[in-house]
Specification:
Elements (H helix, E strand, L loop, with lengths): L1 H5 L7 H24 L11 H26 L11 H4 L2 H23 L4 E5 L3 H27 L1 H10 L1 H19 L5 H21 L2 H18 L14 E4 L4 H4 L9 H17 L12
Antiparallel strand pairs: 1-2
Helix pairs in contact: 2-3, 2-7, 3-6, 5-10, 5-12, 6-7, 6-10, 7-8, 8-9, 9-10, 9-12
Length: about 290
C-alpha cells in the first residue's frame, strides 16, 4: 500500500517528481542568490535591461540545472520536456514564433492608437546609444523568453500533465502564471491577470501543436521586446531604460493598460483570443507531451 502512494508501477508518481523538481529549483536558486548578493554587482534602477539579464539569466541557469537533474533521474532526454536541441533553438519554429510575437503587440498598439490612446513624440535615443540598448533589450527579452518558458512550460508542465492531463495542467499553468504577475508585480489589476493567462494559453497551445518550446521562446521574447522596447510602453509602472521611443498612452486604462502597459489593455484580450483561434487552425495536430496519465 505504501509503495502505491509513491510509485505507479513504472516510476515515481508525477506529484512526487514535481515536488522534487520544485525543491531543486528553490534550493539551487537560493544558493545562486547568495552568490550574487556577495558578488557586489552594480545596482540598476528602474526597468533596466542589465537587471533583467542578471535575474533572468540566473533563473534560466537554475531551471536548466534542475531539469537536467530530473532528466538524469528519470532517464529521459531533455527534448521530452519540450526543450529544443541547440541546433533547433533558433530554427524555423523559433522564427515563426517571433513573427507571431511581433504581430500580436503590433495589432494591440494599432487598436490603442485608433482609439486615441497612443502617441509618439520622437526617438528616445539616437546613434550608438540606440544600438547599445536595442542589443541589450534583445538579449534581455530572449533570456526572459527562455527562462520563463523552460521554467514553467518545460519539466513543470510535462510532469503536471502526466499527473492530471494536459489541458487541466495547461489551465492551472495559465491561471497560476497570471497569479504570479498579479501578486508579485506593482500596480496590478485583474486585467493583467486575465491577459497573462490568455497569452499563456496561446503559448501552451503552441507548444502542444508544434512539439517544442522553440516557438514559445521566440514568441515570448518578441512579444516583450515589442511592448517594452519598440513601442515603449510601461511595465509594472516603469518605462524601459533606453527604450526606442518617447511615447505616451493617454486615455482610459481599459484602452491603454495604464501603469501596467498595453499588455493590460482590453484590446489585448481581443487580439490574444483571435490569435488562439488562428493558431488552432494553423497547427491542427497535437505533438506534445507524449506522456501517460499517472
Amino acid at each position: 500500500m505504501l509503495r502505491k502512494i509513491f510509485h505507479n508501477g513504472r516510476e515515481l508518481r508525477a506529484g512526487w517528481r514535481l515536488l522534487i523538481f520544485i525543491a531543486l529549483f528553490l534550493g539551487i536558486g537560493r544558493g545562486l542568490r547568495f552568490l550574487l548578493e556577495h558578488a557586489h554587482l552594480p545596482d540598476y534602477h528602474g526597468l533596466n535591461p542589465m537587471d533583467l539579464i542578471i535575474a533572468e539569466g540566473g533563473t534560466l541557469l537554475v531551471s536548466l540545472i534542475a531539469t537536467a537533474i530530473m532528466a538524469r533521474f528519470e532517464h529521459r532526454p531533455l527534448t521530452v520536456y519540450g526543450l529544443p536541441r541547440l541546433r533547433d533553438l533558433f530554427g524555423r519554429l523559433f522564427w515563426t514564433g517571433t513573427i507571431w510575437g511581433a504581430a500580436m503587440p503590433s495589432a494591440i498598439i494599432l487598436l490603442i492608437f485608433l482609439a486615441g490612446g497612443y502617441r509618439v513624440h520622437g526617438l528616445n535615443l539616437q546613434g550608438a546609444e540606440m544600438l547599445k540598448f536595442a542589443s541589450l533589450w534583445l538579449f534581455a527579452n530572449l533570456l526572459i523568453g527562455m527562462s520563463e518558458e523552460i521554467t514553467f512550460r518545460g519539466y513543470f508542465l510535462y510532469t503536471l500533465s502526466a499527473g492530471i492531463g494536459f489541458w487541466a495542467a495547461a489551465l492551472f499553468n495559465a491561471v497560476g502564471f497570471g497569479a504570479l504577475h498579479y501578486f508579485l508585480k506593482p500596480f496590478e489589476r485583474w486585467e493583467d491577470w486575465v491577459a497573462v493567462s490568455l497569452i499563456t494559453i496561446f503559448i501552451t497551445l503552441a507548444q502542444r501543436r508544434t512539439g517544442s518550446l522553440a516557438f514559445s521562446i521566440g514568441m515570448h521574447a518578441a512579444f516583450d521586446f515589442m511592448f517594452i522596447y519598440v513601442y515603449s510602453g510601461r511595465n509594472g509602472g516603469d518605462v524601459a531604460v533606453g527604450r526606442l521611443l518617447n511615447a505616451d498612452f493617454p486615455g482610459s486604462v481599459r484602452i491603454t493598460g495604464g501603469l501596467l502597459g498595453p499588455e493590460a489593455s482590453w484590446f489585448c484580450f481581443l487580439v490574444t483570443i483571435t490569435a488562439i483561434v488562428l493558431l488552432h487552425f494553423k497547427y491542427r495536430e497535437a505533438k506534445w507531451p507524449a506522456v501517460a496519465k499517472t
